[in-house]
Amino acid sequence: MFSSVLIANRGEIACRIIRTARRLGMRTIAVHSEADADALFVREADEAHLIGPAPARESYLVGARILEVAREAGADCIHPGYGFLSENAEFAEACAKAGVVFVGPPASAIRAMGLKDAAKQLVERAHVPVVPGYHGPKQDPAFLRERAANIGFPVLIKAVAGGGGKGMRRVDRLIDFEEALQSAQREAANAFGDPRVLVEKYVRAPRHVEMQVFADRHGNVVHLFERDCSLQRRHQKVIEEAPAPGMTAEVRSAMGRAAVEAARAVGYVGAGTVEFIADGSNGLTPDGFFFMEMNTRLQVEHPVTEAITGLDLVELQFRVAAGERLPFSQDDLNIEGHAVEARLYAEDPEKGFLPSTGRLWALRFPDAERLRIDAGVAEGDAVTPFYDPMIAKVIAHGDTREDALERLATALGETIVAGPRSNVAFLKALCEAPEFRAGHFDTGFIDRNLEALGAAPKPFPAAAAAAGALALVARQTERSLASAGVARRGPASPWDVADAFQLSGERRIGLPLTVEGERVDATLGWDEEGPSVEIPGHPVPVGQHELSIVETDEGLIVLDAGRQTSVRLYDALDHAADEVDAGGVVKAPMHGKVVAIFVTEGEVVEKGQRLAVVEAMKMEHALVAPRAGTVIEIAAEAGQQVPEGAKLVVVEEA
Ligand code: ADP
Ligand code: ADP
Ligand code: MG
């Protein structure tokens, strides 16, 4: 076994790899960007080395620099995790040349599966069923459009170099094809440096079912059963589980055989995942699934497989990389219970799931039996705009699917995230959704049920605002009393503090607040029952359940069933920001890069017309005109990096 490992990754997966490596007695070597200098994985590793500035292109993707550190630190092997360099064949080769073991498959296998079109042609020859479509080299728009028409709509345009759900567009009508093609190609060129696409049939009622495979250097190839990853948004997995609901022994063995064939076809070694798409309209059947792609690395959702098999996949990766044989054969493997994983993200479901950044003022998970938390950050850390905004994975294992989902829902209900917005309430709602519970779902489930799952703008949080206001007043009062050296009788009353408020005869005073960035003119009252808050136009519900309150540097965050409301005392400086908002200014919704500006100064635009595209976390967000009018200012240019809230375009009312 190796005595040291360099982890060429960050976040939760770096922490995950460190755990196993340490248990196996290895010295753990982290590499990090400037933005990650204080990150959890850096703190947990035995040693850490700076490799470059925040952008991944200048740090986590610079193979040569990482190899330099490996040499200097004397690393025996490099574990690439997932993403970044994990599926980079040149990097795998460079490791071999530098005499350090790459914990992953041979470069040839990575290369063979790296492009979706070539991979499909290859596995087809090994008699693995693939989705019908065009996987050839031609990229002429008219030609692809014609192929799409022949395949029949809906079709899916996919980047051949794609991953993470990017560079993918579903097209339902011929007239939409060209625009979708351009958009997919642009996103693909941007994210993967390769604009090429393929076009395939969009499978109806799609279920994403994938097989975990493992191979050693001695010709043994097994599968570790399936995972169902059909709960997705924008083609990205949100909840994954194992085994797949509705899976039969017959389908499992057919799918397992296909996966093992695909792995053998490329001389696979190590951990890999063969992803299939199944038409779920009539349940899973032995001839109703098709190969989509093979991910030649450890998968984000590997913990559900670990839960049901009792294996440590990272340990197996190390053993296989060190030349050991797989310690079992297919017949030795069994499924134990059911496991479900939820990906906890710093994003705002109420605002179209926009990534959210900032300091985690609170991050707390319950400690329960058969519950596993793989986190990449801890309370007090910040979520930065540079990388995938995943906070943690929450994994529950139960005797049955029902049991696992119940445990997961309970755990999510007890999880506290304050600071960046999170999808915790959304994930809990998903675990509790009756149709999903009953096993009736496909990849469109989330999109069809967004509102029911709480991913929609919500009415003003009056109860949270009032609770926050009272907490602020109590805090202010305590502070004033303490500094005045006043001894208190009973609960603190704001009227005990002569200079804190202007008293009126009826013991009511105006209390201007900033709630979620908006000015709110609340009124604070006080009688025998204690203090109360009134908010004009928003009756405050009484007799509410307990709300939690987290202090931040400038105010409070009130938590109500996972929903966060920021409350602080109104500050006149906020006012300026309100004015600008009302002026037809289109701002960057987040820290990102301006990819394109579609209008020019003086142009007359319609309400809803596309003005610009901003890209963040490798995903495009289109910005549209807030009203009909004339473009009077363009404040940014394509290629420019802009902070959240930066002015991009100003539209003057017609
Ligand atoms: P997996 O198949 O391992 O579950 P995904 O398919 O969700 O992972 O993502 C594929 C790869 O894309 C992963 O390696 C992950 O690091 C990366 N990825 C996922 N989401 C994002 C994102 N929002 N931005 C950038 N990269 C991402
Ligand atoms: P990536 O490399 O981004 O993971 P995949 O080819 O694995 O790309 O597809 C990502 C997701 O898109 C799948 O999990 C599935 O939900 C959806 N998808 C892919 N191909 C099809 C298809 N032919 N029909 C319907 N949905 C599909
Ligand atoms: Mg995939």
TrEMBL record:
Transmembrane segments: none annotated. Keywords: ATP-binding, Biotin, Ligase, Nucleotide-binding, Transit peptide. Residues 120-322 form the ATP-grasp domain. Pfam families: Biotin_carb_C, Biotin_carb_N, Biotin_lipoyl, CPSase_L_D2. It comes from Alsobacter soli. This is Carbamoyl-phosphate synthase subunit L. Residues 1-451 form the Biotin carboxylation domain. GO terms for molecular function: ATP binding; ligase activity; metal ion binding. It comes from the Bacteria. The keyword Acyltransferase does not apply.
